[in-house]
Amino acid sequence: MKRRDFLRNSTLASGAFLIPSFLKPLEALASGQLTGYKNLVVIQLSGGNDGLNTIVPYGNDIYYQKRNTIAIKQPEIIKLNDMQGLNPNLSALKEIYDQGWMSIINSVGYPNPDRSHFRSMDIWQTGSDANQFLTTGWIGRYLDANCTVNKDPYTAIEVDDNLSLAMKGIKMKGIAVESPAKLYQATREPFFKELVNEHSNANLSEDNLGYLYKTMIETSSSASYIQQTSKTYTTTAEYPNTAFGKHLKGVAKFINSGLKTRVYYVSLSGFDTHASQLNLQGSQLKVYGDGIAAFVKDLKQTGKLDDTLVMTFSEFGRRVEQNASNGTDHGTANNVMLFGGKLNKAGIYNNAPDLSQLDNGDLKYEIDFRSVYATLLDKWLDVNNSSVLNRNFAKLNFV
Amino acid sequence: MSDINKIKHLYARAGFGLGFADLKQVQNLTIGQAIDRVFQASAAVKPLTPIASYLDSNNVAKGDKMAKQQFLQEERQQQVQLNVGWIEKMSTDDSQLREKMTLFWHNHFACRTRSPWYSQQLNNIHRANALGDFKVMLTQVSQSPAMLQFLNNQLNKKDHPNENFARELMELFTVGRGNYTEQDVKESARAFTGWGYNNLGNFVARDGIHDTGQKTFLGKTGNFTGDDIITMLLERKETAQFICTKLYKYLVNEKPNAANINAMADVFYTSNYNIQKVLSFVFKSDWFYNDSNTGNLIKAPVDLIVGLNRQFYVKYNNPSVLMQFERTLGQVLFNPPNVAGWPGGQNWIDSSLLMYRLKTPSILLNNGIIDFSGKPDPEDEVFLAGNAKRSTTASAQAQTVAGWDKFLADIPAGTSKTQIAQTLLSPKLNTYVMAVVNRANDVKGMVSELVSTPEYQLY
């Protein structure tokens, strides 16, 4: 029996997990060892990133035929194989790719795709079917499923001022933290401390007032933990001076300081490129690529890359054919990019998108995005994916 | 519920809260008289006018970097003036209901455009029609440069339709999801080809690029124009249903009540989309004053700020800080997160955001100091000792001065501390709040605590 199995079994057998974790520091430590503190970092590209101009299918003539003025020219492309290559603005990722720390899954989507930003983003964030409306997010339901082991909001941290639907479960929610120090300071106000104390043991109602108090109480305790744990770590790696770069720097600091957080969430917007796409998307891709490259190198340096997996998605890809304004309209299937030190299958995971067999001018999906989630849940976060996704999806072997 | 409590609720929902100055004026009215008073105060349309003229980037010579820089700077200045101008208007204008509804339409027809002139134009369309005819408003919005630009209809041409506007028109402005097909989107986009605007910011129907062919839309076939599509969408009762659901969530309760919403939709539809009629129906309905519908909505950041400004006569020595507060709290006017606007409700609240929100009133009113009247523990003493420094920092950053004297003078003589708390807080006072009230030494200190409670975040 492996040590971790032994620990898991003995914890279960003793019934110790029924005791609140603040009363049992030793068990809390054990749960840390059980999971190995593998982190998942989710990166959301908002607005519908054009996957075809990100990972460019330069080996397919149809790409150049359909994109007269906005195709990336062959000599500029950073070629990955004889079919696909990186947009030149992602040049920083070439080194990461060559090290075997990057994997690209093509044609990820879902049946009956929705072309509305909000609806499709909700579908991706909740992990629902196209005709199903869920009010909880897939990471939120992971928190719900896992809450006997990790019962605190800081199990999932969004580096932002507010929390995405993806992070909201029924019982549990992640926590949004843009600046740990500021948040901590805010919770130290004596009047607020008194409000928290007065309501900590109260039976809080289900309405908005109860929700406000519950949020305040959880924030207060999580802010204290995050600040105390992360304040001693000093980042030495260089990050690009962009908001996205700063957010990733924050995530790396949390990971490197040993925060007991399983999921991090970061967003980058500006991908809704109906017009003048080359410049608009190009500058955002550069922000993305430079930030990710710095992040991956930082974690490699600190020895945490093997415990980290980064997944990037967008709510949809864009039409294969460009529009008249040198842009692209809302489309369907898209690529998902993964980064990590322990990828099972680095490089390009599956065939390049088929540009000849389109559905109404849009790419057909080949891999359901929930298969990607199922893989992350089962093989990386150690929970049974069907309890989170409500049914079983085929797993992939990128980890 | 007593009439004064009903009036308090009405002023919270149909405006930005009942100030003590208002209280003097309305305390002897019946609820019916108060409703009339609310509509009368908003009868006139007073446009928002901080921006005097359109800044045309075409006037900037190509390659002239200095001129370009100056242009961008002026544009930025105008954006601040417009934003702050509207907050000031909401904070001082008598037509509270009109401003509150302008804010509703600002969110319903969420739009982002660089040009402050276009933004102001669109905002005044919302204001002029805020209590009027929805069809007139929808048509004017659809023909405004701001929306034509934002939803790419300027680029919607016969040989290359752009579907962005047509899709949002149905999904967000009228019938809502599930009531049209992808084919309806494509066909109606053709009907709007050619709708655009010229350099002067006026609507133009560009006939040369309009698709005059047959279109099949919502099961009918014809040579439809954009106007025809709008008419056909309003013929669908789903539009009344969709708008009334949003209105109900804005004015009454985030949890929709089918019976109440259906009743609203009937009024709205049969009155040919007369907004004042449906609002009047809501304010005169008994259910509007049910306990379950009072003190339970989470204030939007702008509601919070404007409510404080009105109640406490806050003066901004550096008005642009208003935009910083809006940014921090997650609602920058004229800059919604996406075409669906701000999602509202519990979405306003998350861990970090809640702490900022709770702190905001004391920053605006009291240099960031909450006059803690409870019993400090040793750790608190360290915090309290740092108050002077924090206060200097907060006042240097916010540069606001609250009209405490005026506020205190507004409170009618003989008003008890409990009554003051009941006017400031919409939810019923619980035992903890009552303890804060009872232990308070003075009104100002008590108020600085009350406005810092989660209760104050509700209305």
From TrEMBL, chain A:
**Protein's name in the database:** DUF1501 domain-containing protein
- Taxonomy-wise, where does this protein's organism fall, top ranks first? Bacteria, Pseudomonadati, Bacteroidota, Sphingobacteriia, Sphingobacteriales
TrEMBL record, chain B:
**Domain of life of the organism in this record?**
Bacteria
Species source reads: Mucilaginibacter phyllosphaerae
Q: Quote the Pfam families the UniProt record gives.
A: DUF1800 (PF08811)
Per its UniProt record, what InterPro entries does this chain match?
Answer: DUF1800 (IPR014917)
Name recorded for this polypeptide: DUF1800 domain-containing protein
